[in-house]
Amino acid sequence: MIEISVDIVDDKLAEETATLVETLVADKVASKIAAQDPTLWGPDAEAESAIRLGWTQLHETSRPLLAEIDALRAELHAEGVDRVVLAGMGGSSLAPEVITATAGVPLTVLDTTDPAQVADALAGDLTRTVLVVSSKSGGTVETDSHRRIFEKAFTAQGIDAASRIVVVTDPGSPFEKLAGELAYRKVFLADPNVGGRYSALTAFGLVPSGLAGADIATLLDEASAAAAVLSKDEDTNAGLVLGAALGVRHSEGAEKVVFANTDTSVKGFPDWVEQLIAESTGKHGTGLLPVATEGIDAPGFADAGDDATTTAIGTPAGAARLSTSGSLGGLFLLWEYATAVAGRLLGINPFDQPDVEAAKKAARALLDQPPGSESGDEPSLVDGPVEVHGASGESLVDVLRSFVASAPEFGYISVQAYLDRLDDASAELLRPELAKRTGLQTTFGWGPRFLHSTGQYHKGGHQNGVFLQITGAVEDDLEVPDRPYTLGVLQRAQALGDGQVLKEHGRPVLRLHLTDRAAGLAHLVKAVQEVERP
Question: How far apart are CA 472 and CA 418, in angstroms?
Fold first, then answer.
C-alpha cells in the first residue's frame, strides 16, 4: 500500500502551515469530519453539510457494490459485451476517467454535446457495447440526450436496448423509476448523502470503472488505509497539512492552485481535482481556482507568480511549492479532506454550488426560442475561418490583444472549447500559448464538461477572469429522439447561455466561431502567437 504524503518545499509556507495545523488539531477538525459533524462550516452551511458527508466512510459503505459489479461484468462478458461507454457529467465522468486511465483499461467517456464526438462513440461496435448512464436525478440534459440516442441506435441494429443500458442514480430518483419502467439491465443506487464532486468512491465512480476492468477493490483498500490517517487529530495528518497550506496561501493572495503531474503513476488527476476544488470553494467572491498544466516546464507552472500555489502530483520537482503523492484511492480521500478543511478556513460551505444552475437555466431558455430567432447574432468581424462575436477590431490579433488587456493584474484567462475533444484536440494548445504570451494564469475546459466543474468558480469565485469561448461549425448534426433540438443546437445554447450569465456578472466574454474547425484552430493558434506579453 502506497502511503499518502504531502511535501511542502517552501520553508516559509511550511512554518506558517504548521502553526495553522496546531489550531486545526486543537479544534479536532479531522476527527469531526470523519464523524460527519455538520457544524464545522458554520450555521448557514449546517443543513447542507448534514446530508453531504457520506464520502468519509465510502471505503467501507461501498464494498457491497463490488460483488454486484463483478457479477454484472461476468454476465456481460459471457454475452460478448466488453465495450463500456459512460454517459455522465462532472463527478459522474471525471472520476471514472481517472480510475480507468490509471488502471490502463479502456472506457469511452461521453461528457459532451458535440455531435461528432457522440457519433464517434456510436461508430464503435454496438454488438459489444454496454452504456452506463450516470445521473443523480436523470434530468441532466447531456446524459438524457446520450441515453435517447444510444437507445435508438441499439434498436436500429436489432439489439434489445434495455439489456444494454445500466443506470447509476440516487435512491428514489425519477431516473430510478424510469429505469424500472423501461426494464433497463441493472440499476445501481449511489449514496444520496454524497455530492457529485465527492462521489469517486460511490457507485458513480466504481460501476463504470469496475465494468471496464479496473481493480476497484484495491481502490477502496487504498482509501481505507488513507482514512485511518486522515481521521486523526495529529499535526502530521496530511489532510490537515494540505488544507492548511492552501488556506495560508489564499490568505496571502494566492487564489490559484496550479497542478502538474511529475513521476506519479496516477493519470489525469488534475482534471478530477479541478472540479472538487473549484466547485467546493468558488463562491461568495472567494475560492481557489485550479489550473491544470501540461507539466512542470509548462507556462503557468514554471513561471508562476505570487498569485498561484504550484502543486505537483507526485514527488516535488521544478517550481513546485508543495506536492502530494500516494495511491489513487488515497489521493482521492486526501484531497477531499483537504478541500473540506480549506472550505472551513475560507469561511464557505464546501458542499453547495449556488451558481451552477444559472447557466443551465440560460441554456434552457435559448432552447425554448423558436427556430431562427437568433438571427441577430451576427459576427462583428470575420478573419479567415474565424468569426468574432462580442468584440470589435481590425483583425483577430487586434481583438485578442484587447481581450487579454481586459484581464486585471493577477486575473486569469479561461479558454472554453465547445468542440470535439478527440478530433479538435489541438485546441488544447491555446492554454500554454496564452499563458506564455500574457503571463496570466490560463485554464482550459471542454464545453459543456467544464460547466459541471469550474463553471461554479467562474460565477461565484474571485471575479477577475476573462472568458474565451470557442464554438465550431457542425457538419453532421445528431437528432435527440423525442426532443425538439439536435445536439448541435444544444451545444450552441450551452455556450451562449453560459456566456450570457458571465456577462451578467460583469465579466468580459469573447466568442470565436470556427467556420472550418481544423483551419480555424490553426488560424487561432497562429494569431495567439502574435499576442505580446504585456
Answer: 7
Spatial distance between the Cα atoms of 89 and 110, rounded to a whole number of angstroms: 8
What pLDDT is recorded for position 12? 96
Report residue 233 as a C-alpha cell. 487529530
d(CA 315, CA 229): 20
- Least Cα distance to 268 among 349, 209, 350, 226 occurs for 209
Specify the pairing of strand 83-87 against strand 129-134: parallel
Q: Say if CB 339 and CB 239 are below 8 A apart.
A: no
3-state secondary structure of 256: strand
- What is 462-501 written as a DSSP string? -S-EEEEEEEE--SS--B-TTSSSBHHHHHHHHHHHHHHH
pLDDT 10s digits, 231-265? 999 999 999 999 999 999 999 999 999 999 999 99
pLDDT band at 196 (very low <50, low <70, confident <90, very high): very high
Q: How far apart are CA 29 and CA 344, in angstroms?
A: 9
Euclidean distance between CA atoms 531 and 424, whole angstroms: 22
Q: Which amino acid is at 205?
A: G
CA distance 333 to 269: 13
Question: At 236, which amino acid appears?
Answer: T
Grid cell for residue 351: 458542499
Of 327, 343, 230, 212, residue with least CA distance to 280? 343
Single out the residue of 109, 89, 111 nearest to residue 101, CA to CA. Answer: 109
Residue 374 has pLDDT above 90, yes or no: no
Tell me the mean pLDDT in the region 137-155.
96
- Total Cβ atoms within 10 A of residue 372: 6
What SS3 class is residue 328? helix
Q: Name the packing angle between helices 91-103 and 269-281 (round to 10°).
A: 160
Residue-level pLDDT at 368: 83
Q: How far apart are CA 53 and CA 195, in angstroms?
A: 8
Give the SS3 label for residue 16.
helix
Residue labelled with grid coordinates 428514489: 172
Beta carbons within 8 Å of 72's beta carbon, 6+ residues apart: 166, 185, 186, 211
Q: Give the CA dihedral 232, 236, 238, 240, nearest 10 degrees.
A: 70
For CA atoms 18, 20, 26, 31, give the dihedral sign: negative
Written as one letter, the residue type at 322 is L
Q: In this structure, which long-range contacts are made by residues 369-378, counting pairs with CB atoms below 8 Å and at least 24 apart in sequence? A: 374/496, 377/496
Of 16, 469, 444, 418, nearest to 248 (Cα)? 16
